[in-house]
Fold:
Amino acid sequence: MSRPTKANIVIDMEDVDKDDEMDEIGIDATEAKTSKKKRSVVWKEFEIITNSGDMKARCNHCKHNLAYKKGGATTHLKRHLKLCTPRKATLVGKDKGLKQRLLSFDITEGDEMLSIFKYDKGKVREELVKMFVVHEYPFRMVEHELFTKFCRSLNPKCEPIKRQTLKLDCMKMYISEKESLKLALAGINKISLTSDLWTSNQSIGYMCLTGHFMDSEWKLQKRILNFCPLEPPHTGLAIADNISECLIDWGIEDKISTITLDNASSNDLAVIVLKENFEAKEKLHFGGKIFHVRCCAHILNLMVQDGLTEIQDVIENIRESVKYLKLSPSRLYKFNEIVKSLKLSTSKRLILDVPTRWNSTYAMLECALENKSVFSRYKERDYNYKWLPSNEDWKRAAEVSKFLEVINDVTKVLSGRKYPTSNLFLRQIWKVRKMLNDMSTDNRDFVKHMTLKMKEKFDKYWGECNLVMAIGAVLDPRYKMKLILYSFPKIYPIDDFQRHIDDVRESLEFLYKEYLSVDGQINSSMSSATYDCNPSQAKNQKTYDFDEWVITNFDIIPGNKSEIDVYLDEGVISLVMRNMRILML
Structure:
C-alpha cells in the first residue's frame, strides 16, 4: 500500500473542509459532490441571473437577489441561507413529512377565524345528510351527474356516494340525535305535549307528537317526538295507545303535565284514556286540573266557520267571481285594465280562498271589497259573468270583514313562535267575547243570527274556566289576578263567575305548593285571602278598558302572606303609564 503524498493530504483536507461547510448550512455532502460546475455548495440553492446589466445571485427559495462576482466569496450567500425563512420551512417539512396546508375561514358565532383546512370525508357526509333532510331533497339527487361534478369542483377529493348510502347515513344521524335527546329529556321534570292528526292526499293518516319543555337554562324548547302513519280507524283508543307507546319509547311516560289537542271527539276519548293511565300510576301532575288543554286556534276556527254559514250565499258569489276571473288570463287582464282606468290605489291582487280556512276567506273578502267598483264595470263588458254581488251583499261582506279582522289579529297573537303566548290568551279571548257581546245588540237579523251561532260555540268550549289560560295571565306581572277580576264577570254568567275566580285562586295555590314540594321548601302557610268582585260594579265597567280599570281599582288585601300572596297583591305594570313614560323620553 503506497504512502499518501503531500498533495493527496491537501486534497483530502479540502474535502473535509467542504463537508463541514455543507453540514453547517444543511446540505447533504454526497449530493454536492456530484456537481462539478462550481466548488461552493451554495450554488445548489442559488442561480446566477442578469438584472439591469449586473450579475446577481438569486435564492431559489425566497427569490431574493444578492451581490455576485465571478470568482468572489460566497460567505454572504451562506449567511443568507441560514436566515432564509422559506428555506427553513422546506427543511422542516422534509424532516417531518409535512406538506403545504390550506387555510380557511370558519365562522363561529358570527366571528370569522382563520384555521387550517383539512378535508374530512365524514364531516362532508354529515353536512350532506343535514342538507337533504332540511331541504327535503330526493335521495337520488346524489347520483345526478351534475351534482357529482359540482361537488368535485369544490374539492377534487370529494367522493360520490349512492342514495342507499345516504339513506343509511340519515338513519345513523337519526339514531344519534334520538339518543342525545333522550339524555336531555332524562333531566327534565315536566313535559307538555301537543298532537295533531291529518290525512295526506294519498289517503294516509298521520299523527305528529311534539314535546315542549324548559331546559336547564330556562329556555323554552320543543322537539318532535314522533311522526308516524296511523292505521284507520282513528279512534280515541288508537290515538291514546300510539301516544303511550311513544312516551314509553322516550322514557318520559311519568313526566307529562299537559296535552293540547284539537276538539275532535276521538281526541276527547284519547285524553280520558291517557288520564286514567296516569292516574292509576299516581303520575297525574297537578291533580289533572290542567291536563287537557283545548287548542284555542281550532276553537276560533270552528266558531268562525259556524258564523259564516249565515252569509254563505254572499261568500259563494264572491268566491265564484274571483274563480271566474282567475281561470282566464284574458278576463283577468281586462279586470286589471279597469283597475288602472279607475286609478285605484289598491295594490292587492284577487285572492281565491280555501273554504276550510276562514283566514283565507277573510283575505279574499278584504281584497274583493277594495275592488268592488271594478266588478260592476267588468259585468258591463262580459255578459257571461253571472256572480256579481248586490249592494246589500257588499254591505254584509263589509260587516263580516270587520269581525274577521278582529279574529285574524287575535289568531296572529296566539300563533306567535318567538315569544310566550300562554299569558296572552285570556286577554285576546276576552276581546272576542266583548266583540260578540257588542254584535248581539245589532238590529240586523243576519248579524244577530251569526252572533248567536258563534256564542254557542264559544260557550261550548269556554263555558268552563280554562285554568291554563287563566294561570298564564296571572303569572304575567301586567295582569295578575286583576285581569281575572276584570274579565270573568263579563265572560261568565252573573251567578257563576265568582266560582271560576275561586277555582283559579285554588289552582294557583295548588301549583305553588307542588312546585315547592319538589325541593321540600314549603315553610310558610298559604293565607286565606279571597278575591271577591262586586257583580254590579263589574257589569258597569263596560266603557273602561282593563288598563284604565286597574288604575281606578286597587284591591290591597292584608294578612299573613306567602310569596304567591305578595306577588298577587303587588300592583300590576300598567301598559298605559309605561307607554306615556316612553313618549316622554
